[in-house]
């Protein structure tokens, strides 16, 4: 027992040496996972004798937030931090983003430094000038609101113009500018604004107005699912959709293919709710559930709860259990209880082999940087036209673990001259020597979202593949792949996301708040997670009523 206490004391002393405040250091010692990570980072950075607080806080962020798929590059990042080449949270966030996208590739130093603003010094004069300009643009509203002005918006505008500016200097100058413009705080500045009661009109006139303005709800308000066609109409899935300035033609189901599909489904609606198990669900997911589960319920159909688990490094059982619980709490009952994309890994692999045999896929050896460069120039990969037999052999070697991570990918042979960047030979398979939480260690190659999701939709006989508008440009690839493999094509339709102003809706940012203990877990009532709303006392029926009232349209909803 004494040994454990001595170890904890030594660890606490180590954390205090790097400038963590006592409360943060003690909380960290109580968390075994973060303690292990931070201790490793401190030793890796070579600062066991201590460092200044700025460096220490950045090291703490590395320990709690560094992308797990890019550990090979962590020592390089730590050198940049210790040498103060990376010295602000904004630079560190940019580094995380860059490294997570080049996890299995060699690090291109010049691109890395450009992405992180290394060597860019923002002078106090530049910050002063920017602060003055933003205050001048917003002077009227600041004078009206005084110290009730949303300073966060001012900081956001400054960050947009000067992303690498020192946040401490920015805060000092903003505070000084507010004081210069407004003077000392008054008692009125500290008072909460009172809500003025609206005067009620006379009772007689109120009745008159009510009669005159009564409007019957539209059919779409009464039934928001009228947008979607009957499954029997899927012989003609979208034949065109407009991207920028021209229509992109689409394929459609043959009569024979549609008849075969209808024999399985009995003409019922089959939809799916496909979350990635990498975090807790938020209010936006409530709308996604309402759309997919709600359509199935409205048409007496079926909706799968399918976990999109193609990235073994991101998933946790905690998230899977939470998602199942929340789906049930909101009153939705999945068809066949639960499915996983990993349930179809064998079928997906066999279809990838078939895609190669048909001349629609090839094994590529370009690095991430080279793929990016070639896509920007609309150039074909040097390996695009390699013999089919060679790609089949190499893909088999990928599957058997004979090729290193990052040394080969399977890419779809699409259209490098298209106006749609989602047709630039997307990656279908990557090598990852990581055991899968659901499939175990059987696989060392994993399919990409762009390859897997449309095929699994088809294999599960989904009639309506519903998703948010950011996936609109991927519809071309979705139908291209199903057409290339002669598979049934679901009806794809995108709707607007549910956004709530002045709240955090990003899973990545929510994860940051939870991991760094800025909030009391995923169910903190200040968050717009569904667990947080439930803890706040919001009922499931209230949430469903709210999202139903918003409707299902392609217009932006805030």
UniProtKB/TrEMBL annotation:
<protein>
    <recommendedName>
        <fullName>glutamine--tRNA ligase</fullName>
        <ecNumber>6.1.1.18</ecNumber>
    </recommendedName>
</protein>
<keyword id="KW-0547">Nucleotide-binding</keyword>
<dbReference type="InterPro" id="IPR007638">
    <property type="entry name" value="Gln-tRNA-synth_Ib_RNA-bd_2"/>
</dbReference>
<dbReference type="InterPro" id="IPR020058">
    <property type="entry name" value="Glu/Gln-tRNA-synth_Ib_cat-dom"/>
</dbReference>
<dbReference type="GO" id="GO:0006425">
    <property type="term" value="P:glutaminyl-tRNA aminoacylation"/>
</dbReference>
<dbReference type="GO" id="GO:0005524">
    <property type="term" value="F:ATP binding"/>
</dbReference>
<keyword id="KW-0648">Protein biosynthesis</keyword>
<dbReference type="InterPro" id="IPR007639">
    <property type="entry name" value="Gln-tRNA-synth_Ib_RNA-bd_N"/>
</dbReference>
<dbReference type="Pfam" id="PF00749">
    <property type="entry name" value="tRNA-synt_1c"/>
</dbReference>
<dbReference type="GO" id="GO:0048608">
    <property type="term" value="P:reproductive structure development"/>
</dbReference>
<keyword id="KW-0030">Aminoacyl-tRNA synthetase</keyword>
<dbReference type="InterPro" id="IPR000924">
    <property type="entry name" value="Glu/Gln-tRNA-synth"/>
</dbReference>
<feature type="domain" description="Glutamyl/glutaminyl-tRNA synthetase class Ib catalytic">
    <location>
        <begin position="268"/>
        <end position="555"/>
    </location>
</feature>
<feature type="domain" description="Glutaminyl-tRNA synthetase class Ib non-specific RNA-binding">
    <location>
        <begin position="11"/>
        <end position="167"/>
    </location>
</feature>
<dbReference type="Pfam" id="PF04557">
    <property type="entry name" value="tRNA_synt_1c_R2"/>
</dbReference>
<dbReference type="InterPro" id="IPR050132">
    <property type="entry name" value="Gln/Glu-tRNA_Ligase"/>
</dbReference>
<feature type="domain" description="Glutaminyl-tRNA synthetase class Ib non-specific RNA-binding">
    <location>
        <begin position="170"/>
        <end position="243"/>
    </location>
</feature>
<dbReference type="GO" id="GO:0005829">
    <property type="term" value="C:cytosol"/>
</dbReference>
<keyword id="KW-0436">Ligase</keyword>
<dbReference type="InterPro" id="IPR042559">
    <property type="entry name" value="Gln-tRNA-synth_Ib_RNA-bd_N_2"/>
</dbReference>
<dbReference type="InterPro" id="IPR014729">
    <property type="entry name" value="Rossmann-like_a/b/a_fold"/>
</dbReference>
<dbReference type="InterPro" id="IPR042558">
    <property type="entry name" value="Gln-tRNA-synth_Ib_RNA-bd_N_1"/>
</dbReference>
<dbReference type="InterPro" id="IPR004514">
    <property type="entry name" value="Gln-tRNA-synth"/>
</dbReference>
<dbReference type="GO" id="GO:0009791">
    <property type="term" value="P:post-embryonic development"/>
</dbReference>
<comment type="similarity">
    <text>Belongs to the class-I aminoacyl-tRNA synthetase family.</text>
</comment>
<dbReference type="Pfam" id="PF04558">
    <property type="entry name" value="tRNA_synt_1c_R1"/>
</dbReference>
<keyword id="KW-0067">ATP-binding</keyword>
<dbReference type="GO" id="GO:0004819">
    <property type="term" value="F:glutamine-tRNA ligase activity"/>
</dbReference>
<dbReference type="InterPro" id="IPR001412">
    <property type="entry name" value="aa-tRNA-synth_I_CS"/>
</dbReference>
